[in-house]
Design goal:
Layout (H helix, E strand, L loop, with lengths): L6 E6 L8 E6 L5 E5 L12 H4 L1 H6 L9 E2 L8 E2 L2 H19 L4 E5 L5 H15 L4 E3 L6 H11 L9 H5 L2 E5 L3 H4 L1 H13 L4 E5 L12 E3 L6 H14 L5 H7 E2 L1 H8 L4 H8 L3 H13 L3 E5 L1 H4 L4 H14 L9 E4 L6 H6 L6 E2 L3 E2 L3 H11 L14 H10 L4 E5 L3 H4 L3 H10 L2 E6 L12 E4 L8 E4 L4 E5 L12 H11 L10 H11 L12 H7 L1 E3 L27 E2 L18 E6 L15 H4 L6 E4 L1 H7 L6 E6 L2 E9 L7 E5 L33 E7 L1
Parallel strand pairs: 6-7, 6-16, 8-9, 8-12, 9-10, 11-22, 12-13, 16-17, 17-18, 23-27, 24-26
Antiparallel strand pairs: 1-2, 2-3, 4-5, 4-18, 14-15, 19-20, 20-21, 23-28, 24-27, 25-26, 25-28
Bound molecules: iron/sulfur cluster.
Amino acid sequence: HLKAGFSEHLSTCCYCGVGCGVSIQKDPLGRIWVEGEQGHPVNQGQLCSKGMNLHHTVNDTSDRLLYPEVRFGRSQPRQRVSWDVALERTAAVFSSLIEKYGPDSVAFYASGQCLTEEYYVINKLIKGYIGSNNIDTNSRLCMSSAVVGYKMSLGEDSVPVSYEDLDVADVIFVAGANPAWCHPILWRRVEAAKERNPDLKIIVSDPRKTQTCSIADVHLQLNPGTDIVLHHAIGRALIEMGAIDVAFVSNHTEGFAHYQESVMQRTLEEAAELCGVSINDILTTASYIKEAKGFMTMWTMGLNQSAVGVSKNLSLINLNLITGQIGRPGAGPLSLTGQPNAMGGREVGGLSNLLPAHRDLMNPAHRAEVEDFWAVPRGRIAPKPGLSATEMFEALESGKLKAVWIICTNPLISMPDVRRVEQAFKKAKFVVVQDISHRVETLAYADVVLPAASWAEKEGTMTNAERRVSYLPKVLNAPGEALPDAEIICRFAQKMGFKGFDFNHSADIYAEHVQLTQGTNVDMSGLSHALLKEKRTLQWPYISGQSDQGTARLFSDNQFYTSSQKAQIHTVSDENTSEKVSNEFPLILTTGRIRDQWHTMSKTGKVNKLKQHIHESFLEIHPDDAAQLGIQDQSLVEIKNNRGEVRVKAKLSPDIKKGVVFLPMHWGKLGNMDLNRANNLTNNLVDPKSKEPDFKFSAVSVKAY
Ligand code: SF4
């Protein structure tokens, strides 16, 4: 019942990977407000606090970048220029660096908040035309361990389940995640399932007793870094209870005998001691899984952001495989995606080691297929991975990388060991920042600033954590001269003299992307902007003529995407390779999100209502640790290690494990000081396979300040 002059537009929330549908209503003055979209399969009209306040971030344009700017020398101030001048200057510098130092002297660092079309053109530009694989995104900090885990166990980066499986599961094991705060609408679905079915068992493993634990039947409050020991202990208990699905394991998996031998080497007593949990809780967990008709695992950064993130993923997925709990309703692994379009980025190959449609960068035939499709010479796509996120900034610091183009992300808050990243920016020869806000810290180093259109000011698609693709419409014009990110990249590519970027419309980019998926396991060749506008959302694979609804569940036929078509049960070491605590730095720092803020707060930080929940950073510390250190609740403390320091108020809480402290990841600078930035302390140790940083384990000291 819209009033005259008002219009309604259906879109998708641009924060977490849950992918809630939103109804945007626009008034005659061009202001918008949002509500949850009634009947949407993900959220049924609900939104969390962040989603509910989305319109404030759009209506308030006070921080928006409005015009392109360039500085023509390091000692000169930036000045407003036309788009042509900004892009010609950037193209000239990129061309001369590439000519002098080669294609690997430049890089793009983008974001899991980019639309799929944006990801696609950036990836095509650097891999297919510039001839370097130096594109990475902040998804590297988020999902890359899950990507490798899925590939190694199931054959491809393919989430096998849907959210609807949560409605019928009878055991849900949440590992290293706090979805009650970080994926709230999905967690409400679990809460509703628990209300309907009190026999639904919920197990949470986390060193902190978070809001998610409030409905847990078992909280395994493990020591940081012991997840694999715990998963193996549960595996051992399942073997000893006779809970293995022998037929499934022998017909559809490989590697069980080795796994069994490995997990039997550590007794449950030893495992419980190492993890800091009770044997009884391990046995109870295993007995719940044994009895489950539908067993689901859910996880996010507690497993992914680790020096052994891939092994943590594999050891958890193994619990689904050994019990045959995959490929049927209410069963399987579900990685929770931190960002709205991390999966869309993976579909187009938007990381330094990927190719479009889950093709393998190291496979010459796959490279040739993509080169032919893009009509570029054979051999153009470099046969080696480009720089991952941490490698990119290390290479910038060492001078190997000369230019970096930052799109829609704020690495000066979000990267680990962030003071080194600051040094890297200082050494860069050329920095391009493409963003919506003049509040992002990277602007201090920008030679070129490119103002981008925000959510609701551009159109395109995103894929949520259950493979659900949605179309997001353009509802408003961007302020000033800001342009959609895909248009900026295509205009730049044309200034570089590259063919293949003369798209008239975002739908044309999408059509090219889905064509490249044809015949692959991620086939979405039946999708188009027009169809998505009509149907709202669909899950891939979606092949023309085969299905009206898309695909809710993978592997129903127990045929996996590995070469043998069998799922792989990998045996992994349970050793944690994080840095060690010491007498000097005896506490383990873990970082994470709070309920009402998002990433580095360039959007949610503008909304007063969202500051009411928690308005400043804090250190969560156990009262016993605080007492030993003479720290009072709400007193100022200094957290320190060799990389830096942070000064915030202490929040004493018995909900955190002794020996562990927690800082929120969101805050950056307080005035001119960076003393509330958690990443002053984190380290750039990464998982060797996924290159994902070890954000959840840094050795620190804490003292009253
Ligand atoms: Fe947005 Fe995630 Fe909240 Fe849904 S749960 S409204 S997608 S932030």
